[in-house]
C-alpha cells in the first residue's frame, strides 16, 4: 500500500499525462499463435516510449471464456492463457517502471462471466450463500420480470431451469450483472482492486461503472422498435446508489494509493460528469462520456456529422468541467470505428492530413488525451468481404436482428463497415513487408485471430517511423507540446466562430496573458473566413506551434486548405 508521503506527492499527475490504450489481442503476437499477448506488449514498450505515452491502459487480460473478448471475466487474479502468465505480467510491469511508464488496468465489475465461481455457486440454489451476488427474479406468467432490452440485443433476462428464476444481464447472457447492493459483493471487488494495486498497477479504467446501481423493483421501460423490448436504461444507468458505492470505493481503497481512475459512463451528461469527477466528492478522477460518439447517428444508423453540434458538445464540456472536474479526451477506443474513416477522410491523398487535423483538434483541449493503438499511424476502418470475417458479438447480434427485421444485406453491411467494433480490433500494422503486417513474431503460416486490414502494405509502423512527416511524429510533437506548455493542460477554453459549419476554432488562455488559437478545417473543401480583426492578430502571432501543412510565407491564416489545421501562440 502507498505511504502517505507517496500518496500526496505529485498530486494529479494524470492531468499532465497522455494515455495509450492497448487492446492486447490485436497489439503484437510474440509467439506466433495469431493472438496478441503480454510479452508482445513488453517487446514494444520502447516504441510507446518513443511516441511519448505516459500511461498504458490495457483492455482486460484476465482469465476469460472470451465470449465478449475478455469483458466476461472468469477469474480476476489470473491471466488469460492466450495472453501469457502472471510471470509475463510481472515482467511487463517491471519493464514499464524502468521506462517510467504507468499501467492502468481495465476493471470490469458491473458483471462477471457466467463461468465465474461466484455465478456457478449462485445457480446452485436459492439458498446458496452466493445467490444474492447476482440479480435473480421470478418470472411473470412464464415471462421474464420485464422486457428490458440488453445492450447487445435480446432480453436482459435469462431463465435458469434448475432454480426456476431469471438472472439479469445488461449485456449478454454470458455476462450476469453483479448485485452491488450486497456488501459482500463490494468487499470482494475491493479485495481484487487492492490485490492489483499492491502489485504496483497505477489505476483503473472502470468498465460501464455507472451501470452498477439498479432501481429497486426493475421497473418497466418504454417500448422500442417493434414493441418486443423496452428501453430500461434509465433504471440501470446512473442508478440511485451509484455515487454512494463509488464514494465507499474511494474511502476503502482508492484514497490509500496514488492512482488514476477513469469511469466508462455511457449515458452520462455534463452534470453527471461533475458528480463523478469533482475532487471534493471523492469518487473518480474523470469519466468517458459518449455524447460526441452519438453525434453521427445511432449505433447502426450512421449519418453525416454536423460540426456545429460537435463544437457545441466540446464547448459545453470544456467550459462546464473547467475547475470543477476533469475531461477525458478521445476519438477512438476498442468499441469505436477509426476516427480518420469516421470524421476525417481515409482516401489518399487526404488520410494523413485529415488524421493530423483530428489529432490537432483533440490534443489542444483541456483534459487527459487518449491515443488508441494504431491511431498514431492513421489506421482505418476495414471492409471485410463477408460477415464470417467479423468476430465481434455485438456485430453478429446486429446482423441476426437486422435479418429478422427484413433489412437488405447491403444496408446491413454498410452499417457494419461504418460502425462495427471490429474496425478498431484488426491487428496493429507493424510492417508493410511481412505477412499479416508483421503482427506475429516469426509466423508466416498462422493467420491472426481476426484479419489484418489489407492496407497494411502502405499504412504501418515501419513506414511511419521512416517518414519524418508521418502521423506518428505529428502525435509525438503534440505530446511534447503538452509537456512543455502548461496552458494546454490548465488554460481556459473559448470557442471562436461557433456557427461556422466547416472550421472548428478555439482559444486557450491563462491569467498570465498567454493565448493560443487552434483551427481545424473538417472539410475537404477550401474554406475562407472573413474576420479582419482576427486575421490581423494571427498575422502577428508569436510562433507556429504545429500545423499539418507547410506554412512558410502564409499571409492569410483564415484561408484554409482541405483539412488544414494549425495552432498558433498569439500572445
Report what the structure shows.
By secondary structure, the protein is of the alpha/beta class. The protein folds into three domains: 14-110 and 183-474, Glycosidases (TIM Barrel); 111-179, Oligo-1,6-glucosidase, Domain 2 (Oligo-1,6-glucosidase, domain 2, Alpha-Beta Complex); 492-569, Immunoglobulin-like (Sandwich). Helix content is 29%, strand content 16%. The chain contains 18 helices and 24 strands. The strands form seven sheets. The chain has an eight-stranded parallel β-sheet with strand order 13-12-9-5-2-1-17-16, covered by helices on one side. Strand 7 (157-160) and strand 8 form a beta hairpin. Helix 12 (351-363) runs parallel beside helix 16. It is globular, with a radius of gyration of 24 Å. The two termini are 45 Å apart.
> Hey, roughly how much beta strand do the residues contain?
15-25%
- Estimated helix fraction: 25-40%
Largest sheet: 8 strands, parallel
In the sheet with the most strands, the strands line up as 13-12-9-5-2-1-17-16
The name CATH uses for the topology of the largest domain is: TIM Barrel
Please give the domain count: 3
CATH superfamily assignment of the largest domain?
Glycosidases
Question: In the CATH hierarchy, what is the architecture of the largest domain at level 2?
Answer: Alpha-Beta Barrel
The total of helices stands at: 18
Oligomer kind: single chain
The global form is globular
Radius of gyration: 24 Å
Distance from N terminus to C terminus (CA atoms, Å) equals 45 Å
- The CATH class of the largest domain: Alpha Beta
Counting helices, strands and paired strands, the structural category is alpha/beta
Low-pLDDT residue intervals, each spanning 5 or more residues: 1-9
Mean pLDDT: 95
Please give the number of β-strands.
24
Amino acid at each position: 500500500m502507498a505511504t502517505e508521503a507517496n500518496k500526496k506527492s505529485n498530486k494529479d499527475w494524470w492531468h499532465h499525462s497522455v494515455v495509450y490504450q492497448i487492446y492486447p489481442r490485436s497489439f503484437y503476437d510474440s509467439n506466433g499463435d495469431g493472438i496478441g499477448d503480454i510479452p508482445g506488449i513488453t517487446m514494444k514498450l520502447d516504441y510507446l516510449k518513443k511516441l511519448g505515452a505516459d500511461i498504458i491502459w490495457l483492455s482486460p487480460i484476465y482469465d476469460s471464456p472470451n465470449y465478449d473478448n475478455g469483458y466476461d471475466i472468469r477469474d480476476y487474479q489470473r491471466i488469460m492463457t492466450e495472453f501469457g502468465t502472471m510471470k509475463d505480467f510481472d515482467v511487463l510491469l517491471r519493464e514499464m517502471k524502468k521506462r517510467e511508464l504507468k499501467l492502468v488496468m481495465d476493471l470490469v465489475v458491473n458483471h462477471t462471466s457466467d463461468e465465474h465461481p461466484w455465478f456457478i455457486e449462485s445457480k446452485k440454489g436459492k439458498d446458496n450463500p452466493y445467490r444474492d451476488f447476482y440479480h435473480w427474479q421470478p418470472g411473470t406468467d412464464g415471462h421474464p420480470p420485464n422486457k428490458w432490452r440488453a445492450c447487445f440485443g435480446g432480453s436482459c433476462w435469462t431463465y435458469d431451469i434448475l432454480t426456476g428464476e431469471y438472472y439479469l444481464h445488461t449485456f449478454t447472457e454470458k455476462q450476469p450483472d453483479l448485485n452491488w447492493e450486497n456488501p459482500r459483493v463490494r468487499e470482494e471487488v475491493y479485495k481484487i482492486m487492492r490485490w492489483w494495486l499492491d502489485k504496483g498497477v497505477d489505476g483503473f479504467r472502470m468498465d460501464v461503472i455507472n451501470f452498477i446501481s439498479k432501481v429497486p423493483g426493475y421497473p418497466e421501460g418504454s417500448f422500442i422498435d417493434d414493441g418486443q423490448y423496452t428501453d430500461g436504461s434509465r433504471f440501470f444507468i446512473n442508478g440511485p446508489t451509484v455515487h454512494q458505492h463509488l464514494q465507499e470505493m474511494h474511502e476503502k481503497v482508492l484514497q490509500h494509493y496514488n492512482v488514476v481512475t477513469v469511469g466508462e459512463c455511457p449515458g452520462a451528461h455534463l452534470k453527471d460528469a461533475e458528480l463523478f469527477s469533482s475532487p471534493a466528492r471523492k469518487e473518480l478522477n474523470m469519466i468517458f462520456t459518449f455524447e460526441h460518439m452519438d453525434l453521427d447517428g445511432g449505433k447502426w444508423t450512421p449519418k453525416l456529422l454536423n460540426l456545429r453540434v460537435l463544437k457545441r458538445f466540446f464547448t459545453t464540456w470544456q467550459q462546464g468541467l473547467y475547475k470543477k472536474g476533469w475531461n477525458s479526451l478521445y476519438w477512438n477506443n476498442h468499441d469505436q470505428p477509426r476516427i480518420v474513416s469516421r470524421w476525417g477522410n481515409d482516401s489518399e491523398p487526404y488520410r494523413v492530413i485529415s488524421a493530423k487535423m483530428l489529432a490537432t483538434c483533440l490534443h489542444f483541449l483541456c483534459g487527459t488525451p487518449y491515443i488508441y493503438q494504431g491511431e498514431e499511424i492513421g489506421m482505418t476502418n476495414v471492409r471485410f468481404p463477408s460477415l464470417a470475417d467479423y468476430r465481434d458479438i455485438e456485430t453478429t447480434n446486429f446482423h441476426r436482428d437486422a435479418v429478422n427485421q427484413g433489412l437488405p444485406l447491403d444496408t446491413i453491411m454498410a452499417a457494419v463497415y461504418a460502425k462495427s467494433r471490429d474496425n478498431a480490433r484488426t491487428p496493429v500494422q507493424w510492417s508493410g513487408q511481412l505477412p499479416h503486417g508483421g503482427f506475429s513474431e516469426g509466423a508466416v503460416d498462422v493467420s491472426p485471430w481476426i484479419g489484418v486490414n489489407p492496407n497494411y502494405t502502405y499504412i504501418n509502423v515501419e513506414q511511419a517511423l521512416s517518414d519524418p512527416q508521418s502521423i506518428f511524429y505529428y502525435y509525438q510533437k503534440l505530446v511534447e507540446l503538452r509537456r512543455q506548455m502548461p496552458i494546454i493542460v490548465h488554460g481556459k477554453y473559448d470557442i471562436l466562430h461557433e456557427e461556422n459549419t466547416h472550421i472548428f476554432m478555439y482559444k486557450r488562455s491563462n491569467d498570465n496573458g498567454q493565448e493560443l488559437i487552434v483551427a481545424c478545417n473538417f472539410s475537404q473543401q477550401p474554406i475562407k473566413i472573413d474576420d479582419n480583426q482576427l486575421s490581423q492578430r494571427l498575422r502577428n502571432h508569436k510562433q507556429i506551434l504545429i500545423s499539418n501543412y507547410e506554412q512558410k510565407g502564409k499571409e492569410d491564416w483564415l484561408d484554409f486548405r482541405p483539412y488544414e489545421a494549425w495552432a498558433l501562440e498569439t500572445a
